[in-house]
Amino acid sequence: MVIGGRENNTTNNIMELMGPLEGLGKARRDFGKIKCEVISDSKYFVNGFNSWINLWFDREGNHIKKPLLKNKDMWLQLHAIKNKSKATWVRGHAGHIENNLCDILANAYCFRVIEGSYCYDSLESLVKFTEQAKFKLMK
After folding, report:
1. Run of H or E including 108
2. For the segment 54-76, what is each residue's pLDDT rounded down to a tens digit?
3. Is the pLDDT of residue 21 over 70?
4. What is the count of structural domains for the chain?
5. How many other CB atoms are found less than 10 A from the CB of residue 107?
6. DSSP β-ladder status, 2-4 and 37-40
7. Quick one: angle between helices 97-110 and 123-138, nearest 10?
8. Can you give the residue range of the structural domain that contains 21?
């Protein structure tokens, strides 16, 4: 599942957390507590999700370490819906098909080629959409 959207006046790190947060939230709403794999080219997200998050919060979500944790509210939400999910890092711009498609999608939103939020439930629908967005970006 791929979800697309944009936010004004934000940071790269916030958006690196927003994608997985929205995706895991939708998966949990639609399917309950299931194990998911989140593919990301963000070491900030992958390391935080797989390792650091367990040092920052206890099982009840109480903040226990890193007093100046940035984006604490988002990390807390990720901690609450993580379940047994894991994140896998892939190198950006290195031929990973879904990562490349997401990069095109992110640029299309960033440069306002597309507006609104969308959810792509199949790779085929994402490929079709990103082909259209890529064409518009190149104009």
Report:
1. helix 97-110
2. 888 877 777 776 667 889 899 99
3. yes
4. 1
5. 14
6. unpaired
7. 50
8. 2-138
Distance CA 96, CA 2 (A): 15
Long-range contacts formed by 68-75: CB under 8 A, 24+ apart: 70/13, 71/13, 71/14, 71/17, 74/14, 74/17, 74/18, 74/21, 75/17, 75/48
Average pLDDT, the chain: 80
pTM of the model: 0.77
Phi, psi of 115 (to 5 degrees): -125, 165
Return d(Cα 79, Cα 61) in angstroms, integer.
7
CATH number at residue 27: 3.30.420.10
Residue 15: burial class (beta carbons within 10 Å; 0-12, 13-18, 19+): middle
The answer for residues whose C-beta is within 8 angstroms of residue 67's C-beta and 6 or more apart is: none
Per DSSP, what are the bridge partners of residue 63? 57
Sign of the dihedral defined by the CA atoms of residues 54, 9, 12, 103, in that order: positive
Which stretches does DSSP call E strand in the chain?
2-4, 37-40, 86-89, 118-120
CA-CA-CA-CA torsion for 94, 99, 103, 106, nearest 10 degrees? Answer: -160
